[in-house]
Design brief:
alpha/beta, Aspartate Aminotransferase, domain 1, Aspartate Aminotransferase, domain 2, 13 helices, 18 strands, globular, binds pyridoxal-5'-phosphate
């Protein structure tokens, strides 16, 4: 979570000219300061958390400002542009739909919605069968919460309404999503918390060393919660605050546990879905299928579109008109999402992720070796990695070091978003799925160089 602002004073930096990076001005660019300053004056402060670079256009794995500077994009926006920036197929799909003369349709049927749903259906393992299109990831997780509560009421009455989620989890910024999230600080505005949202430790192997499933059961017992009162368990497949996937044995035990107690297993795939981890979904690594999955981000390559994937039974609980959203399957977003999913298949991007993944892993290891005990933990799966800066020998966050790494990366032409995670100590590395070996290697070397200077 970004908790501070990057300074707006331009700094002279060493020029960079490579195939993927071009930095030829001070950073931030002096001509951009007025625009940046005005944004800071007119928007809520919360919008000022990212590096002060004006995004103007992108191509594949690079992003450029209007002043002739180009960065190698290790952010993918925020894990969104899997197929890269400005993919010609996506541009074509957006243009064609606009030229067809339809840029809004509410829930009236459209052909493009059908085509997108059919494409999505081809990604789904049984028993996931139905697809509900929405706009944001938060909307998708909120919908999952509603379905879990409704399912609980239907089979066990009002008592069966507890939703279990995990410490340090993130499911979005709306009220239900924040109640479900595992960050105490983000909930202070809510006042009295709903006791039916309960968090247990996430088996990350770093802050929670014991990754056995017994911890899940023990944590609930310690809180005095009966498994029979639980309507669902929701987790990110890998935690977005770093890049730690649920251990497969834990996930399989959780699946069995949910079946036993008739609690829904919900996986938040907003970050993990559609190839980011080197498989279609994050859960494809775990040997399980959830009852519901919330998707967003990489589903569309950049346009606002999200989805809830669910079983026949769960998706039939509400009648016509009872679950809707104004911009559900907006035709232009749907056209972009369809093109995006087809590109992922046509260009074999998941295979590319599998090829690039060991390089990311080795790069992170090298960064850790170079930085020594300043980095407490690294994680990666597919093309998402995280470096957690901590005080030597502890899990205590060291956000200053993380912010410094991001700032220096920007100055050297590698685009990262502001640190996230516990105490803002995690630097995430998540290039588009289209990145090639050359570009990935170059960016990782830049980061290793920075690690040596820290
Ligand atoms: C795992 C996860 N779930 C849900 C969300 C919320 O998505 P949105 O910002 O589109 O509402 C995010 C956003 O970062 C996320 O990473």
């Amino acid at each position: 979570m970004a908790t501070k602002e990057f300074p707006l004073e331009p700094q002279e930096v060493k020029p960079v000219y490579t195939k993927y990076r071009r930095i030829h001005t001070p950073v931030p660019v002096p001509q951009s300061i007025e625009l940046l300053q005005t944004l800071r004056e007119l928007e809520p402060r919360s919008m000022g958390g990212q590096p002060p670079i004006i995004w103007h256009h992108g191509r594949g794995a690079t992003i450029s400002d209007p002043y002739g500077n180009t960065w190698l994009d290790f952010s993918s926006g925020v894990l969104v542009t899997g197929t890269g920036h400005a993919h010609p197929e996506i541009i074509k799909a957006i243009k064609e739909m606009a030229e067809q003369g339809l840029y809004h349709a509410y829930c009236f049927p459209t052909e493009i919605r059908l085509r997108l749903i059919e494409e999505l259906s081809s990604w789904l393992p049984a028993p996931l069968k139905r697809v509900f299109l929405l706009t944001t990831g938060s909307e998708a997780t909120e919908c999952c919460i509603k379905l879990a509560r409704t399912h609980g009421q239907n089979i066990g009455g009002d008592r069966k309404s507890i939703l279990v989620t995990f410490d340090n989890s993130f499911h979005g910024r709306t009220m239900g999503a924040q109640l479900a999230g595992g960050w105490g600080g983000q909930k202070s505005w809510l006042g009295d918390l709903d006791e039916r949202f309960v968090q247990v430790p996430f088996p990350d192997g770093f802050r929670q060393q014991d990754t056995s499933f017994e911890i899940f059961e023990k944590s609930l017992a310690d809180k005095g919660i009966s498994p029979d009162d639980i309507c669902g368990v929701m987790s990110e497949t890998y935690q977005g605050c770093n890049a730690t996937i649920i251990p497969a044995p834990y996930a399989q035990d959780l699946r069995k546990w949910c079946n036993k107690y008739r609690a829904l297993l919900i996986l938040d795939e907003v970050q993990a879905g559609f190839g980011r981890t080197g498989k279609p979904f994050g859960f494809s690594h775990l040997g399980i299928v959830p009852d519901l999955a919330a998707c967003g981000k990489g589903i569309s390559g950049g346009m606002p579109l999200s989805a809830v994937l669910g079983t026949e039974e769960l998706m039939g609980m509400y009648g016509p008109g009872e679950m809707t959203s104004t911009h559900s399957a907006n035709p232009i977003c749907a056209a972009a999402a369809l093109a995006n999913l087809q590109v992922i298949k046509k260009e074999n991007l998941i295979d590319n992720v599998v090829r690039m993944s060991p390089m990311l892993e080795q790069g992170l290891r090298r960064i850790q070796e170079t930085a020594g005990d300043k980095i407490g933990h690294i994680d990666s799966i597919g093309l998402v990695g995280a470096i957690q800066f901590t005080s030597p020998g502890t899990t205590d966050p060291n956000p200053e070091m993380a912010w410094e790494m991001v700032l220096r990366a920007i100055q050297k032409g590698v685009m990262l978003f502001a640190p996230v995670g516990v105490g803002g100590c995690a630097v995430k590395i998540n290039p588009p799925l289209v990145i090639n070996e050359d570009a990935l290697q170059e960016g990782l070397e830049v980061l290793a160089g920075i690690a040596a200077e820290l």
